[in-house]
Amino acid sequence: MSASQTEKRADGSVYINWAKTAQSAARYNLADSGMRNYKLADLPVQLSDIELTGASFYGYPPLQQALARKAGVPAECVVAANGTSMANHLAMAALVQPGDEVLIEQPAYEALLATASYLGARVRRFARPSENYFRLDAGEVERALTPRTKLVVVTNLHNPSNSLADEATLREIGEIAKRAGASVLVDEVYLDSAFDAAPRSSFRLGDNFVTTSSLTKAYGLSGLRCGWVVAEPGLAQKMWRLTDLFGVLQPHAAELLSVIALDHLDEIAASSRALLAENRALFNEFLAAREDIDAPPSAHGTISFPRLVAGDPERLCALLAEKYETSLVPGKFFEEPQHFRVGLALEPEDFREGLARLGAALDELTATS
Ligand SMILES: Cc1ncc(COP(=O)(O)O)c(C=O)c1O
User: Fold this and answer.
1) What are the boundaries of each domain within the chain?
2) What architecture does CATH give domain 50-263?
């Protein structure tokens, strides 16, 4: 678990490659972790609102202001990025030198591991054990941290388990990291999908916190690629200078659309919340009725990570894909091969049908094993 992996990887992300190629083929896509796509037609946009090129260099000022308002921080703390993906890359690239030790939760979103390895970090792990439903535990971080640790990386909500960490635990992790001179990166891309249950962004929990997020998961706006880092101003500057190497500018049309989306975020959130409430009720009924899968009832967020009590989740996923036009994410992509990840944020009629197909495949798996 805690042995560090030193090999520099430059082969991308196995999981992202799978997600871009295999999963999207399914009619009932329970593999997707974000809200169903929000439509351009539902945004109050006129063609005359959009322009292709504008005064956007180290950020487009109106977007900087809108993101700063959303995050509740000064605009100097915000670095706009191409999704949380580039936000994570910028944050790690600014904080980690080749050979530095980075301590990452296990199980983890694989792109975080791949990014740290790509940057030449020595990747070390701390456990979020399945027996505790992957709860974040500061003691596990303390046990795995070494004097060489430069960065601790967590997701909140946790991908894949959806577990919500409380402020006290995150604050404690910040203090543990600080004693070693390390920063804490909290990927909060799922946090807004907890709505009222969401704690404040971790950025305020200590001066060694950096957070990342985007409009992708809770709002269904992945296509805008509107992501951001929140960091103290000196570090944010360092990241802006790295953007000179990574794409230089954001597409201006997307920046203009992002400002409009941020102006209407409450309405977009209300539509996400209503859809999720409906699907969550269906999912919790489904979970309660089945003895062959185990997960806590869903209380927030867009995903769940059940354990298949007996049998092979890879077989389940293959059966679903081949016979039921339905996709899940096999737990092997998250280092937990007895689990699978289910997305809760499809249109309700598709979600209902996807769940029915999941039930039929589970029954078939039991009957044939
Ligand atoms: C933990 C985590 N971070 C980042 C991302 C990427 O998000 P974005 O679309 O904002 O780049 C994902 C997407 O699955 C994710 O699960």
Assistant:
1) 14-35+266-368, 50-263
2) 3-Layer(aba) Sandwich (3.40)
For residue 147, report the distance from its CA to the centre of ligand 1, in Å.
29
**pTM higher than the cut 0.85:** yes
- Class at the top of the CATH hierarchy for domain 14-35+266-368: alpha beta
Q: Is the CB of 33 under 6 A from ligand 1?
A: yes
pLDDT at 78: 98
The tens digit of pLDDT for each residue in 50-79 reads: 999 999 999 999 999 999 999 999 999 999
Report the candidate in 62, 31, 125 with the shortest Cα–Cα distance to residue 328. 31
Please state, in angstroms and rounded to a whole number, the distance separating the CA atoms of residues 246 and 252: 16
> Is ligand 1 within 6 A of the CB of residue 183?
no
Identify the pLDDT of residue 75: 98
Residue 159 Cβ contacting ligand 1 at under 6 Å: yes
Q: Give the chain's residues under pLDDT 70.
A: 1-10, 23-24
CA 69 from chain center: how many Å? 21
Ligand 1: residue of 211, 216, 229, 302 to mutate (most ligand atoms within 8 A of CB) is 216
Strand partners, 79: 229
- List Cα–Cα distances, 353 to 3, 141, 285, 319, 366, in angstroms: 43, 41, 14, 16, 20
Amino acid (1-letter code) at residue 214:
S
How buried is residue 180: exposed, middle or buried, by Cβ count under 10 Å (0-12/13-18/19+)?
middle
Residue 103: which residues within 8 A CB-CB, separation 6 or more?
124, 125, 126, 141, 144, 145, 149, 151, 152, 153, 182
What was the pLDDT predicted at 278? 97
